[in-house]
What we know:
By secondary structure, the chain is α+β, with helices and mostly antiparallel strands.
Amino acid sequence: NRYISRKSVLFEVADSIISDFFGADVMRGILVPLFMGAVFTLTNSAAYASEKLSADVTDAEAIPDTPAGQAMRTWFEAMNSRDSVRIQSYIDRYQRKSSAEDYLDYYKYLGVMALVRIEESEPNSISALMTVSNSDQLYRVRSVTDPQDRTKLIGLTMSAIDRPEDLAIPRLTQKDALAALDKKAEGLRANEKFAGAMIIAKNTEAIYARAWGLADRPNGIYNKVDTKFRLGSANKMFTAIAILQLVEKDLLTLNGKVEDYLPDYPNQDFANKVTIRQILTHTGGTGDIFTEEYLANISDYKTHSDYVEKFGHRSVEFEPGSQERYSNYGFLLLGYLVEKISNMSYYEYVRRNIFEPAGMKDSGFLPEDVSVAGRAVGYTAVDGSFIPNSDSLPYRGTAAGGGYSTASDMLQFAKALQSGKLIPAALLNQASSPQNRDGWYGYGFQTRGKAETAYFGHSGGAPGMNAEFRIYPGFGTVIVALSNMDGPYAETLADYYATRMPAEP
């Protein structure tokens, strides 16, 4: 029940683990940071379909016999074996810190993995293209070994990339693309991998609206398009819009430092270094929240000030602006800033300034112990059964993630964004354009693709929840997929349609 979003550039560098919460997120027990791995089979066919990949295919021999290639091949074979003993052997040999259980979780998330081709190979570095069976996503994976110690893996990086022309999946007519999506979604539902709702809009008008599976299993209540689903990190977009609205009103600036607005912040050195822009782009070194103490007392954190009181004493993890690392605490801090500057709770601010103007009547952040009509029960897989995710939920959603919405409301959010109701077009253009070094994040929006295939939005996930929200300006298309089961299948369906949708109506 642990996974991490495919949209971000993900790293295991010097075996440090990237963290994420309710979005590009992962769980150890409840929610803990991990990195993503992959295994592969060799294919040069541009028309391959991920669902045709076989779990028995292994072409490790295609990987060059160099120190870096040996490290990649050992990882490849260990992961593809799905054998914890073999994976532990890889961990021991290459001085890794992640557990075999972590690696098995990566496999569960990605599904069957395949090597497409080797791009570059030198003695101590190798780059390869890889695919996975749980989506149509293509990845670039790089392995780098220490020239002085061939058993020391300096870094393994994995990044989602656009497909080159020779690996492109053919686009379909609108009718055929939606029919293929229907078939894909029904297959996932039948195999108990997906339950949820999906809306696709073309030029702001919905052309597809479907729901699958159960919102409440014991009571036999089915999901509907207007069922309320937990968003996970997808509601980081709301936090970013709130901050940008305050920027537009000249109540703060992107280059302003934390100390400018929170003079009593617990760690003054942190407050003196970190800017609002850096927090929005995950380049501030603001860290995360997944300590053992937090996980053991998750329901005790009821307000944004509770998080600042607990985590605000820490120093920055790196010199702000020098690196990028997904930070949930950073967005919690932004929520706290919204409260201090607006003189209202984060929840009230978002309701008045985002939900109401956008017409999002079924979205909110009510605590988990409050009964919310139409809110789906989240189900997470444990030992082959599906159980409610209630034990893993925080007291309520926050500025970092965890609110709820419907597919219809999220389409309203997309319309409000694009029409200028929430922030001016020029500011949205900045927010939805790459703002960090590796180009995967703007101001509170994940950014991917180039030219007409470029999109912005956000994913979200945790046990029993998965969300995917995308706007493709070049296609005039909005994709919303929400689920009350473990991911990554909301993302899978969004990917599946996006790679096949027609460029023209």
